[in-house]
Amino acid sequence: GAVVSQHPSRVICKSGTSVKIECRSLDFQATTMFWYRQFPKQSLMLMATSNEGSKATYEQGVEKDKFLINHASLTLSTLTVTSAHPEDSSFYICSAPKNTGREQYFGPGTRLTVT
Amino acid sequence: DQQVKQNSPSLSVQEGRISILNCDYTNSMFDYFLWYKKYPAEGPTFLISISSIKDKNEDGRFTVFLNKSAKHLSLHIVPSQPGDSAVYFCAASAGGADGLTFGKGTHLIIQP
Q1: Residue A81: strand pairing partners
Q2: Is the pLDDT of residue B88 over 80?
């Protein structure tokens, strides 16, 4: 069964508004979670690492003031896309490593469409 | 600069035959490699992984081979089944707390 959930699965918002996406680990605690973005027919690109109890670390080229990450608890990380623009439309996916393994388990993804 | 490369955007294989998906990498710091299967509008599903200290890992119909000197890995699926049709991503990690670097994926199509 699924070990990582995301909500919502799909969201449409107007340009200039903010959207929050939740990522939860279902039966384990995750001190670290990762956020990725996938554009159509492209690879998954790591955006940032969400750390419980400390600030997120962002990959080069990802605006930390635009993509706000909060790791509120050991089972929840949120990504807020602020002042969304049409070019932010994408598929956002989170992942978490389970236990001490190197495998990362992914959520089902969130399709964001900004009109 | 793409650090993980999957040079075949698509691959068509007959049902029952072997599917071989290839992946090359350039970053010598990668020490763990993973294969994921993905359907459209869904998150990737973990298939199999291999540590850089090994050259082969097998799990049922799936086997991953790693050639460190060539910086090349491959995923073998045998026998291929219709349900294997999906996009397969190769991913690599340079440390336990690091995110993954993905290739662009190979769309595997299993022909009946």
Answers
A1: A19, A67
A2: yes
pLDDT digits 0-9 by tens, A78-88? 999 999 999 99
Q: What is the pLDDT of residues A6-40, one digit of tens each?
A: 999 999 999 999 999 999 999 888 999 999 999 88
B10 vs A contacts (CB less than 8 Å): none
Mean pLDDT score of chain A: 93
B27, B92 contact by CB (below 8 A): yes
Are A94 and A6 spatial neighbours (Cβ–Cβ below 8 Å)? yes
Interchain CB contact of B24 with A (< 8 Å): no
Q: CA of B61, closest CA in chain A: separation in Å?
A: 19
Q: Is B83 helix (H, G, I), strand (E, B) or coil?
A: helix
Q: State the Cα–Cα distance between residues B33 and B90, nearest whole angstrom.
A: 7
Backbone angles phi, psi at B82, to 5 degrees: -55, -35
What is the average pLDDT score of chain B? 95
What is the token pair recorded at A98?
Answer: 């389970």
DSSP string, B29-80: T--EEEEEEE-TTS--EEEEEEETT-SEEEETTEEEEEETTTTEEEEEESS-
